[in-house]
Q: What sequence folds into this?
């Protein structure tokens, strides 16, 4: 029979707490009622109150506190009724006040803990939902690459007349379809890279890289896009009129993506006949690159959010795109130990107060030091 009771106590924490409180009360009652009223042992009832708060219900905690207060005041006249001094009553009232304050504070702590647990549960649910969404998006983008590649290859085969002759009008339509599919594929690959970088970190193949050469290569690749938009791309080397070298220790492929994102963004948001200026400024500690357009500029409330994932502003600057290019650029630059920013171009003194004269997207990277190892490496 005894082992059965012990098993029941172990399996039921509330029952175990109840008997502990009963034991505490028994000890304190014996001390209280076997000593003169001047000796106040009622403070010891705080122990059962502290035990009851986290383990029993709020009602049970209130009942334990009320019982302790009642026994403390009862001990003034029980077990022997006699004249009591005011100081004794005051001492016991102070003990009762201490027990009530303890009970109130314990109750507030309980409420705080319950709210905290609810918030943690909500946070965990949100994190789990976000993880599921990211896994879904990552899987979806990965699976979308295959059909897009297949569609591009098929259209290119039609364009090469592998399936029969194609008239010039059809070739023009095929070229448009191929370009549209390639744009979709680029968005899918960017989205996949963004999720992979967030989860695994961005892996870089590091080597000495000349930013000037990278910028010029990207500008050459975007010549057709600039021509279609009737936008002129020019280079500026700061105080010097001659081309310079700007060496950094980085990943040439990833840095090309940054320049491609910034230049494409500038071309798309420049007016026809406008100019996109690439400013390359060598420095002693940092190499600075800026891409300046002549578009509508950026609203001040949008500046802090431009490099956030999926951010779409309300101005004409963000009317196109997936909202991932600038976020990916930030990932790449920060992985290189640099900083990236956006700002509006300074206005002419006679410009209107609400006018916007174009935007500047720039980044800084540490200058390459020859003491660094020359072999490629990868890190997250």
A:
């Amino acid at each position: 029979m005894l082992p059965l009771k012990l098993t029941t106590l172990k399996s039921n924490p509330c029952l175990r707490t109840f008997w502990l409180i009963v034991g505490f009360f028994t000890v304190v009652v014996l001390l209280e009622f076997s000593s003169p009223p001047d000796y106040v042992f009622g403070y010891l009832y705080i122990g059962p109150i502290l035990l009851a708060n986290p383990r029993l219900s709020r009602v049970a905690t209130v009942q334990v506190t009320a019982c302790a207060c009642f026994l403390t005041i009862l001990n003034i006249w029980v077990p022997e009724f006699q004249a009591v001094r005011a100081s004794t009553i005051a001492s016991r009232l102070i003990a009762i006040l201490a027990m009530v304050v303890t009970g109130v504070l314990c109750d507030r702590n309980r409420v705080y803990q319950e709210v905290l647990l609810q918030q943690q549960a909500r946070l965990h649910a949100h994190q789990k939902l976000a993880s599921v969404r990211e896994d879904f998006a990552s899987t979806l983008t990965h699976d979308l690459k295959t059909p897009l590649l297949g569609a591009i290859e098929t259209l290119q085969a039609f364009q090469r007349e592998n399936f029969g002759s194609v008239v010039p009008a059809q070739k023009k339509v095929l070229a448009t379809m191929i370009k549209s599919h390639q744009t979709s594929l680029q968005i899918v690959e960017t989205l996949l890279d963004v999720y992979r970088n967030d989860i695994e970190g961005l892996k870089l193949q590091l080597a000495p890289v000349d930013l000037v050469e990278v910028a010029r290569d990207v500008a050459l690749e975007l010549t057709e896009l600039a021509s279609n938009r009737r936008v002129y791309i020019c280079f500026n080397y700061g105080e010097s009129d001659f081309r310079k070298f700007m060496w950094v220790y980085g990943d040439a492929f990833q840095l090309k993506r940054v320049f491609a994102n910034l230049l494409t963004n500038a071309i798309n948001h420049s007016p026809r006949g406008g100019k996109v200026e690439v400013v390359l400024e060598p420095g002693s500690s940092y190499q600075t690159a800026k891409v300046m357009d002549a578009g509508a500029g950026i609203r001040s409330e949008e500046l802090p959010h431009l490099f956030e994932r999926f951010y779409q502003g309300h101005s004409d600057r963000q009317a196109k795109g997936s909202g991932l290019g600038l976020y990916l650029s930030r990932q790449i630059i920060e992985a290189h130990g640099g900083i990236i920013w956006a700002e509006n171009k300074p206005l002419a003194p006679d410009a209107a107060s609400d006018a916007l004269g174009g935007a500047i997207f720039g980044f800084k990277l540490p200058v390459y030091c020859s003491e660094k190892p020359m072999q490629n490496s990868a890190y997250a």
Remarks:
- The radius of gyration is 37 Å.
